[in-house]
Amino acid sequence: MLKFLKGVVGSGGGIKDLPYNIGEPYSTAWGGWAHFRGTSKDDNSPVSIFSYTGSNAQDARLAAARNGAKRLRVVRHPNVLAFLHSTEVENIDGGVAKPTIYLVTEPVMPLSEKIQELDLQGTQRNEYYAWGLNQIARAVSFLNNDCKLVHGNVCLASVVVTATLDWKLHGLDVLSEFDGANPAATGPMLQYDWLVGTQFKSLELAKSDWTTIRKSPPWALDSWGLGCLIYELFSSAKLAKTEDLRNTSQIPKTLLPDYQKLLASAPVKRLNSAKLLENSAEFFHNKLVETIQFMEILNLKDSVEKDVFFRKLPTLAEQLPRPIVTKKLLPLLSSALEFGSAAAPALNPLLKIGSWLSQDEFNVKVLPTVIKLFASTDRAIRVGLLQHIDSFGAGLSTQVVDEQIFSHIATGFADTSAFLRELTLKSMLLLAPKLSQRTITGSLLKHLSKLQVDEEPAIRTNTTILLGNIASHLNDATRKRVLINAFTVRALRDGFAPARVAGIMALMATAEYYDATEIATRILPHLVVLTVDSDSDVRTRAFQATEQFVQSLKDYYSKLQSGDPTAVAAPAANVASAGSLGLLGWAVGSLASKKSNDLSSAPAEITSGSTIMTASASQTAAPPSIATHTSAQPRFHVDEPATASPTSNDGWGDAQDQAFGNDDEDEKDGWGDMDLPAEPALALSRIRAAQQKPVTTQPKPVATSTSSPVKHISRPAIGRVKESSPKSSDGWGDDDDPWAAIAAPAPSTTARPLNPTASRPSSLANGPRRQPQQAQHVSIDGASSRGRGRAAPMKLGASRIQRTSD
């Protein structure tokens, strides 16, 4: 028999055979066991280690400990302590060999110590006790009704608590089979009943009336033990004697009737533990119990039930005991999101509960799940992560962002939803500093190059602002190639006034990176043009920037002439002080405003919910034109056709194509040397003036069969970001007047057949011709949706007519 038990619990030559490290002990344990904290030698994971040392090999208490180890190994239930490992060794103490049993389980701590640690009061205490009693009642019901086993010693000391605050039943040393159906059975049914304290014994067990016990239901003894556990919980004291069970002053009124049934003097009248949860529905069905039970059977719920539950959970979590929420609900939420049983609405309560944790706890309990969610293809989850990235972005390491997260986030740059594109763009304010130079130049700048010609003006504006903020994280060569092209050629020539303002502010914020030649030849010409812009805020910013850049050049050359060695530095360093704070505050303020957005309230579809960044409190208030470009209820899938962008077909596609198709190192990021447009930024006053000019028409001779091919006159694209033009040394071309190209040429009134054909019959060769029609006016470049200038007359010309001679 001893050999069999050793085979069950294991044996070894010493504690060195135990693959676990024994740590500090707990102050209390059940039935003479010692309870220690421990860790695994393999992965350092936490465990609990119980040990019992017998006085000799024939110690009866040692036999009971072996019975407990054997029973724990074979009894498996979610509410019974989980077995991991056991072994028995002999320790030499004073020349006497003393056998010791080591029992390793999942990490737990005594319930009495956990109650003192939580220190819950009032309703929250009762809700937690209801949840714990629910679990213990299920464990007892499993033993009594399903396994026909009797625990025999249910009390406060036989309950332990896991790290997630779940209650587990242990102390199975007295556990025995119920043999009431065997009429030939004699003697004690519980072999180790002498381990049960006198105060916990029912009347029949105290008298060792085994005949009555065998005639009683299997749950009779353990129902009495449940009553003892309830008394110890609510009285906050250990049961000293059986008579104390009559004191019901601390028992909740909703639980009192069933408490009295559990402690009925007649064993046959005692309440079955399975019926306890049904009878005391008012006590056991509270907010905490219902919330946890819903999470545990989440896979069985439909999508509507899940959606309603997760939308209410943030408010409900504030009403529940915070320790239970952070230690029990939070792991359930993380697991549900990670394995796909929870949808996007669960992300908001996850991050809200995570905000109650310390930074170290958040990095351990929440951040790993968030990192895995970035790989999700669910657009709603991606939106939720980007909306709340400011709450966890600071905790992301450089390696995680560069190697694991960015590749998934970058898919949002090309998403069909403008709202998601803008959220992706704004997330770079926190993530770009954590990216390597290889990722920035090889991937990020390519995406930003495309976003600067996005169809949404708000996205173009925010891209300029982002570039200004991350300029300090670019290397010198990249800054030289990217910044001026992005801020002048694109931003300052954007048809959207706030985008031009953003370009001016970005230039001022990054002034320290430009030398005198760049300021004089590539920056000031663009700024001076904007001093006659139609938008008042653009003009104000342009004057401010122009004056400061000019003053910086004066100071620079004054120092240069005086031989000051500091003149070698960038001449515009003092300009940055006036603009950088405003730019950075602008972007940060906009990103912070997104923090209040609730993912759970976002509809299923999102349109271009692009929010233009508002100026910070320290800066001049933004004009009315810098308003939100947001629909009342953003949607995801845009059904209507997208409006053509003023910059999507402006001639800058060549620069982008070259960026992706050229192997040259300078061009691979989409920001290579760009040809400056042949015309300056918009000046609506000049356009209106050109529209007022009278148009004179001159008749032309009718086309003959030998007429020359039609010549096409290229017209300027009004409101475009860029047009292709011959590149000159100063970036402006050979025109002395850059505004002259805006004036429309005189239209042609040459007659032209309405329906020309490839060939014409000879009989019609000398026939009458159609009368010349008046020139029709069409919008410049055929742009009908935006960028409209005045209606320019379409030039008509002669077309070659093919005739055949007979």
From TrEMBL:
Residue segments, region Disordered: 639-676, 691-806
InterPro entries assigned: ARM-like (IPR011989), ARM-type_fold (IPR016024), CIK-Related_Protein (IPR051177), Kinase-like_dom_sf (IPR011009), Prot_kinase_dom (IPR000719)
SUPFAM superfamilies, alphabetized: ARM repeat, Protein kinase-like (PK-like)
Record field: compositional bias (Polar residues): 693-709, 749-777
Ranges of residues in domain Protein kinase: 1-357
Biased composition (Low complexity): 739-748
GO MF term list: ATP binding; protein kinase activity
PANTHER family according to UniProt: N-TERMINAL KINASE-LIKE PROTEIN, SCY1-RELATED S/T PROTEIN KINASE-LIKE
Protein known as: Protein kinase domain-containing protein
Organism, scientific name: Physcomitrium patens (Spreading-leaved earth moss)
Gene from which the chain derives: LOC112279992
